[in-house]
Amino acid sequence: MLRSSVPRLASLSVGLSTCKFSTLQPAVTSSAEQFYAHLQNHGANFEKTLASIRAKIDPSCISKVLRRCSVDRSLLGLRFFIWAGTHSTYRHSGHMYRQACEIFWIHHNPGAILEVLESYRADECSVNLKTVKVVLNLCKEAKLADEAFWVLRRMGDFNLGADTVSYNVVIRLFCQKGDMATAGMLMREMGLVGLRPDMITFVEMIKGFCNVGELESACMLFQDMKEQGCIPNTVVFSTLLDGYCRSGSLERGLELLTEMEKGGGDCSPNVVTYTSVIQSFCNQGLVVKALAVLDRMINQGCPPNRVTVRALVDCLCAKGRLEEVDELIDKVVSCGSFSIADCNSSLIVSLIGLGKLEEAERRFIRMLSCKMRPDGMTCNMIIRELCSTGRPFDAFMLFREIEKAGCSAFIGSNAFSELLMGLTKLNHKEEAATLARLMLDRGIRLQAPYVDNVVKFLKNSEESVLIPELTKVGKPL
């Protein structure tokens, strides 16, 4: 079941008990230096004495120690990371788990997990449930289902029994892997060892069954959950409902949505629930039904979010029903969750994505004339799209209008570079010089792919004085 490590951790080649580390300067000041110095002078089972160090444990300190150990003492560094995670005054964040996995390449070297536990056994270290949970969380971050399973099975070697949290980590990993047979076996095993599946267990299992298309199994588990006295909440309902929608069982999804609305309380549908149904109807082109769900959503006091609106706008635009888009915008704005500028920006992005540039341009100009401020994505997209369709002069004129509206700060270096390239390519000398000087004044970078062509153009113009600055690729112009 387990994969072999590639390569083995460098620290194993010398062994913890015989490691000789380079010494630090006598004056140890920072927390990281204190811990690292201690690790250098203590071999096997160094965890026993680490607690004696009066130094602050924080992410910065831990990160520095890990990086120093990563060169040739990976096992030592991993054990320090695990020890720190069990400290009474500190708890690893998700970011720190990601960092540890990256520093020690655990994704590519899953055998590191096995080697850590084997080193604990060989050194006769004291291992508690907290220790194992940190190891399991490393497996979770690196998505190592087989290694997590192995850790679960080795807990008995340290006279430890797994708790519900430990089982949930391993079950989740197998669900993500799509191995529902192993996940189901572990869930049944929980009952045999005196543990009860909790809400997290059921959510992960139901999500796993839905992801592999086993909706009947998901429904059966949903019913079992209620029979066992574990009342489904919004997350459970939404997970099952999303499974129905993704499988195309939209009518069954609507029935479940109705059940949630009637249940209320902890079962009330939220924005994620409604959006899942709306997206599914939109994906099948059933925009009328999608809009009906939006009405239900608003009536339930649940305002739509950006994802909801974008799904509906995309669907209506694809069908050419632009008048209804305007009605949709009015409805969403009246809910108070979006400004009219946000909605129109989403509409323009959708139109550009569907290749309806003329309509997108018309609405963009209307926004500016109505004193509405389009967002950054919209400004950049329309400039770049006009350039890509051979209309850099129009893009430049539109940029001028964006400037007047006070939105030019939204324009990024890619859009500026493409616009300058387009102007030079079509020999718009005056506009190109104006834009180049503006970029220099604002410290905007000219992207590398465009430098040669722009410089070639400037050499043949009266603006060759700009070349020294424009050739500073990767530096502010």
From TrEMBL:
Keywords: Repeat. The keyword Repeat applies. Pfam families: PPR, PPR_2. PANTHER family: PENTACOTRIPEPTIDE-REPEAT REGION OF PRORP DOMAIN-CONTAINING PROTEIN, PENTATRICOPEPTIDE REPEAT-CONTAINING PROTEIN. It comes from the Eukaryota. PPR repeats lie at residues 163-197, 198-232, 233-267, 270-304, 375-409. InterPro entries: PPR_rpt, TPR-like_helical_dom_sf. This is Pentatricopeptide repeat-containing protein At5g47360-like. NCBIfam families: PPR. The gene is LOC116202524. It comes from Punica granatum.
